[in-house]
Specification:
Layout (H helix, E strand, L loop, with lengths): L5 E2 L10 H7 L5 H9 L11 E6 L4 H10 L4 E7 L3 H15 L4 E3 L2 H5 L6 E4 L3 H13 L3 E4 L7 H14 L3 E3 L7 H12 L5 E9 L19 H5 L25 H5 L1 H12 L7 E7 L12 E11 L2 E10 L11 E7 L2 E6 L3 E5 L5 E6 L5 H13 L7 H20 L3 E4 L4 E2 L3 H5 L17
Parallel strand pairs: 2-3, 2-5, 3-4, 5-6, 6-7, 8-11
Antiparallel strand pairs: 1-15, 8-12, 9-10, 9-16, 10-11, 12-13, 13-14, 14-15, 16-17
Helix pairs in contact: 3-4, 6-7, 7-13, 8-11, 11-13
């Protein structure tokens, strides 16, 4: 690990051991340990190479590809993308890193059919995350899937079920889960360093660009648009769908709450101790600033209420402003935890400060996020049976908050959510959005949707 860590108070890992803390906080929960112990390994021993297929190697995926390709025990056998330009660029990345070109394919089924592939890394648009993950598990592959793990709540539950049923490891790309300085902050919260944490806050305040307005047009010749659409409803191509801007459309993405916001929401839920879903959700938001084709809110305020976490009601609050060139608490994206005896303020890219009564600084730790540690955790789980730091169930619980925030903002009502059935009660319009519509008869539609 390459963390630039500086501890103001060198008190070690007092109280809970790191492993015991991770187990109690849900990072190595029963389901994850079960999946790890019961899986049929894909043939990779501690000294063997892990053969992977990279599905969606453009944009953020290119960074993932560079990281995995640089690992000495990894062989990138495939790069898969329906955009030929991106696939060729990805192949060049691998050749420069390993000296050997991977096979280039457009259809992910080509990767999954190869029994020599141990694992896949999925960095596609959101609408492909669950279908690709479920198909990969069923094909016997372990999966590293980018956040948010799902396009909707129902898909997330099916991903958890597929991982357990197929005894596959599925790691979600919320890389803060593998950062030592963030793990330390969460440990302190669980140990009671600021008393009982009753409210956790996550914010996403930054200046996004205008995506403009576009009309349907022919896709470029280098893009297999039908493959790109996959099981999503058939929508005419628009030039502002690609690249990356797909995330602002209901058919493909989850808005910025599911893009950047879910990182901070995941940390907030972790620190609050929310290992279940909330019971009530209220949201206000909409297009306050941008006049473009963006379909999700550019301004959003969501409150999640948990009825019983450690015997008390608790709140998780999410704020989003995509037109704001300012910082909050010194950070454009961050977290704050409010306890009965203090407060902890955290930024993924610089560390945290812990305050006692009357704003007394009692502890702090600096750190710089390094995604490689998270990728390494996935590989070590495959090779040596280590626990995943961001198992699919953890990813599902956090992604569900993003989905619920979007649903509540769309319908404009307080939602009552049943954590056991994962349904919105007494609101048919809102409950319909727990799922999505698919292209009739498509081969990648998950069973049970």
């Amino acid at each position: 690990m390459h963390f630039d860590v500086e501890i103001a108070k060198k008190d070690g890992m007092n109280g809970l051991s790191r492993r015991r803390f991770l187990q109690q906080s849900g990072v190595a929960a029963t389901g994850i340990a079960l999946a790890s112990s019961q899986r049929t390994n894909a043939g990779a021993g501690a000294n063997d190479r892990v053969v992977i297929g990279m599905i969606g190697p453009g944009g953020h995926g290119s960074g993932l590809l560079r990281s995995f390709a640089a690992q000495k025990d990894v062989e990138v056998a495939y790069v898969c993308d329906p955009d030929a330009h991106r696939a060729n660029q990805a192949a060049n990345i691998v050749k420069q890193s390993a000296g050997k070109s991977p096979e280039i394919v457009a259809d992910l089924r080509r990767v999954l059919d190869d029994k020599g592939v141990d694992a896949v890394v999925i960095a596609t648009p959101d609408h492909w995350h669950a279908p690709a993950t479920i198909l990969a598990c069923e094909a016997g592959k372990h999966v590293y899937v980018e956040k948010p793990c799902s396009h909707n709540i129902r898909e997330g539950r099916l991903m958890v079920e597929a991982a357990r049923r197929c005894r596959r490891l599925v790691q979600v790309g919320t890389q803060s889960r593998s950062a030592d300085y963030i793990i330390r902050a969460m440990q302190l919260l669980q140990e009671g360093a600021i008393g009982d944490v009753l409210v956790a806050k996550a914010w996403n305040s930054q200046l996004r660009g205008n995506i403009g307005k576009a009309k349907p047009s022919d896709p470029p010749a280098h893009l297999d648009y039908d493959l790109w659409l996959g099981p999503a409803p058939s929508v005419a191509y628009q030039s502002n769908f690609l690249h990356s801007t797909w995330r602002w459309f209901f058919s493909f993405g989850t808005g910025d709450i599911g893009n950047d916001g879910v990182h901070d929401i995941d940390i907030a839920r972790w620190g609050l101790g929310g290992q279940i879903h909330p019971n009530r959700v209220a949201a206000l938001g909409g297009k306050y600033f941008f006049d473009d084709d963006h379909q999700f809110p550019d301004t959003q305020y969501v409150v999640f209420e948990y009825e019983d976490v450690g015997g008390r009601k608790k709140q998780l609050v999410y704020e989003q402003r995509l037109w704001s060139p300012y910082v909050q608490e010194g950070r454009e994206n961050g977290n704050a935890f409010y306890g009965t005896e203090g407060m902890l303020v955290l930024g993924k890219h610089d560390g945290w400060q812990l305050y006692g009564p009357r704003n007394e600084l009692r502890d702090q730790m600096k750190g710089q996020l390094d995604s490689t540690a998270h990728h390494r955790n996935f590989l070590d789980a495959i090779k040596m049976g280590k626990d995943l730091n961001a198992d699919i169930e953890i990813g599902h619980l956090s992604a569900a908050l993003a989905h619920l925030g979007n649903i509540a903002a769309r319908v404009g009502r307080v939602l009552r959510f049943d954590p056991q059935t994962e349904t919105v009660t007494d609101d048919d319009e809102a409950n319909a959005l727990v799922r999505r519509q698919y292209r009739v008869g498509h081969w990648a539609i998950p069973a049970g949707v």
